[in-house]
Fold this protein.
Amino acid sequence: MPVIVTLDIMLARRKMKARDLAQRIGLSETQLSLLRTGKVRGMRFDTLSKLCAVLECTPGELLDYRYDEGDLAAVVEDAE
Amino acid sequence: MSNIRLTDQARTFEVIAWIAVVTLSVQFLVFLKLLTLIGPVAEAISYGDWAGLRLALPPVLSRLVDVLPALIYLGGVLAAARIFGRVAKGELFSRANSDGLAEVGSSLLWGAAASAVIVPWIKSWLAGEYGFAGFHLEMETWVIAVIGGAILILGKMMAQARRLQSQLDEII
């Protein structure tokens, strides 16, 4: 189970459009769209900081996670 | 080095590389003199003169074998010219360039192998001496082989770097 990006929820709470958010944090609309749908490999801390600064929230309000045993499988294989 | 300077240099090298390709190609045609050699071969074939063909064929094959290393190097120069052309247009870390570098390295390696082993072996076989003809290694051949290997590895490294860059681009 991957980390879930709950950016849409915060956008709705702040009544902000994705286009405006992208412009304020220096991302393209395409990049922000990929981020919202979780189709990215990762996010840099400075991107996360900018999101938190603009949306006036904490990282925990933008990201969610539900435990899945399969998430540790790759780590165990690497260790072996 | 700024991109503008790099593209200017690449453009210069592209011109030099294409001049080298044309010059080498013309030299091959002049050196081979295939038309004078092929005449007896074609005549022997047309008259069904197999004994004559056995006499006429070795000089043609020998002449072709002589230029084999240079033909292989020519392939490398062509690949380099194409790389310079792409860099001159601003295309740097592309798959085509990494494949092209590997092609340049391979042609240098194979050209050196042809000089050192393949050509001597074929020529001794044409002279009727069967068996391994030994290595004919000059210093230049060693240098070309080592540099070819280095360029081949660099090409593969560039391909790996491109894959890493692609992964990094997926991190927003």
The CA atoms of residues 105 and 148 of chain B lie 4 Å apart. The two ends of chain B are 27 Å apart (CA to CA). Chain B has one domain: 3-169.
